[in-house]
Design brief:
Rossmann fold; 6-stranded mixed β-sheet; 504 residues; mainly alpha
Length: 504
């Protein structure tokens, strides 16, 4: 009996050794193929992002980027932010100034740096997951990012792509050295400093690392050098940008942007990955099908890198708390959540199936195909319809200028700040555009830019004085009611494609 058991065990060991040696060439091929695939996907997303960037007009925030970046000099940019010119740190616009000049002040040139930063951040996320698992699962982490909201904001002429890049770099540095050395700590602190100079909400990047350190804390253990360096980096950035931060607090009222609420927080998790529920359903069906009749095996313990990645789910909740002070809670402010979640998902999949043989090898391949196919299909749709997701009537407004002039209208009055700046930026008659406001709430951005650009601001009395020469463009019902109450007769000039009123 003992001899029989010994023979069985020896045959099993020989079979496992044979399978292991046979699978080595396959593993090498998968690794090589993964590198080729990630390079191809990186080129695809960079190329399509640049195409979309060249075929989509700037929207209001990007117009503000263009106008702020092109101020007379760096000192002018700093002075403008001391007056509350924008909600982002001035250092982003200072970085963009030479880059904008390099690409000759075009829509494409404004967006190229962001597209490059997004692609670099995706590759860093791939490499981070690759080091914690293998190349195939690093590719899965890359594919997870393509199914998020990242490709939509990745090429935008704002600082979100740089914010994402630095968040991915911080994760890469932290997981690259588990020995907590001084060079790594200094590098992590510098990255956190740079991240905050790109976006104030980059302070949220510290949350998963702080919770991770707290979870691993033991009595008598000193705080992590990396975490301490990160905190110092954030504090240094806050000290550098104190003037702009105080101006933002002074000029941006509590109701200026989306006020935080639990309803918005609940939808935030779904908006980070818009199709997550559908994709997870497909993935679970695939796993259930491939893993049928698979013998259970003990799972290895969750490693530090995967645990850290799951703590990135705390960033939206921390952002909600921060927004109670900052009075702004936008999905794009939470873009730092993505690298950690992508790495954690890939490592979790590798821990469950990446080390298996037989059918288990195809589970990760199937998940990769599901995610990559979905992400590529969405990006191709966005490439075919580059203006999808955001509509601005700026082209219709500018195309009707000649008709308004022919009918004796010398002033094109716009009451919406977004429509006004977009029309002003693209118009061949910028001097004829006027911004009309009933009160001073939220007008500081344009009044600050008005110190450097020719802009016209009217009150109700100005509007009444120039009524016969005025065309009122896309006004809301409140503005129309105010003009009628002031004794002006409002005539509907057109209602499509945009609403235009003539005043008498």
């Amino acid at each position: 009996m003992s001899a029989s058991i010994t023979n069985v065990l020896s045959r099993r060991a020989a079979r496992e050794e044979s399978l292991s040696s046979a699978s080595q060439p396959t593993a090498d091929k998968v690794t090589a193929w993964s590198y080729v695939a990630v390079a191809a996907l990186a080129v695809f997303y960079l190329g399509t992002s640049l195409y979309i960037a060249a075929h989509r007009p700037l929207w209001i925030d990007e117009v503000l980027t263009a106008m702020t970046t092109r101020l007379p000099g760096y000192a002018a940019i700093w002075r403008a932010f001391a007056r509350g010119a924008d909600g982002l740190p001035p250092t982003y616009f200072m970085l963009m100034r030479p880059l904008d000049a390099l690409f000759r002040h075009g829509e494409f040139g404004l967006r190229v740096p962001s597209a490059l930063a997004m692609t670099a951040g995706m590759l860093l996320t791939f490499d981070c997951a690759r080091r914690l698992s293998d190349a195939l699962h690093g590719l899965i982490a890359f594919a997870v990012l393509t199914c998020s909201f990242l490709p939509y904001y990745g090429h935008e002429a704002r600082s979100y792509a740089f914010y994402f890049l630095l968040a991915a770099l911080a994760l890469w540095i932290w997981t690259c050295d588990q020995k907590n050395s001084w060079p790594t700590a200094i590098s992590f602190g510098l990255v956190m400093l740079l991240a905050l100079t790109m976006h104030y909400y980059a302070v949220l990047c510290l949350v998963p690392y702080a919770v991770f350190e707290l979870a691993n804390w033991k009595p008598g253990r000193l705080p992590s050098r990396k975490l301490a360096a990160g905190v110092i980096g954030v504090l240094c950035a806050i000290a550098m940008l104190r003037t702009a931060i105080e101006a933002g607090r002074r000029f941006y009222p509590a109701n200026y942007l989306t006020h935080p609420s639990l309803d918005i927080l609940r939808t935030t998790f779904a908006d980070l990955f818009p199709d997550a529920l559908l994709l997870m359903g497909i993935i679970m069906v695939w796993i259930a099908w491939v893993a049928r009749n698979r013998a259970p095996r003990p799972l290895p313990a969750m490693e530090a890198g995967e645990r850290l990645g799951w703590f990135f789910f705390l960033i939206p909740a921390a952002g909600y708390l921060l927004a109670q002070i900052a009075h702004a809670f936008q999905l794009r402010y939470l873009i730092a959540t993505l690298p950690g979640i992508a790495v954690a998902f890939a490592c979790c999949l590798w821990r469950h199936f990446g080390r298996g043989r037989g059918r288990a090898r195809y589970i990760s391949l199937g998940v990769l195909l599901i995610l990559a196919t979905w992400g590529v299909a969405k990006q191709l749709y966005a490439t075919r319809h580059p203006e999808s997701g955001y509509y601005s009537p700026v082209r219709e407004i500018n195309s009707m200028e000649a008709a308004w002039v022919a009918e004796g209208k010398q002033y094109f009055v716009v009451s919406n700040p977004s429509r006004y700046l977009e029309a002003l930026y693209y118009s061949r008659r910028p001097g004829q555009y006027v911004y009309f406001f009933l009160d001073d709430a939220g007008q500081h951005e344009m009044r600050t830019l008005g110190l450097y650009y020719p802009m016209h601001f009217w009150t109700l009395e100005d509007l009444k004085q120039h009524a016969p020469q005025t065309a009122l463009i896309v006004p809301d019902s409140r503005i129309v009611a105010a003009t009628r109450q002031a004794g002006m007769r409002v005539e509907t000039r057109s209602s499509a494609p945009i609403s235009v009123y003539y005043l008498h």
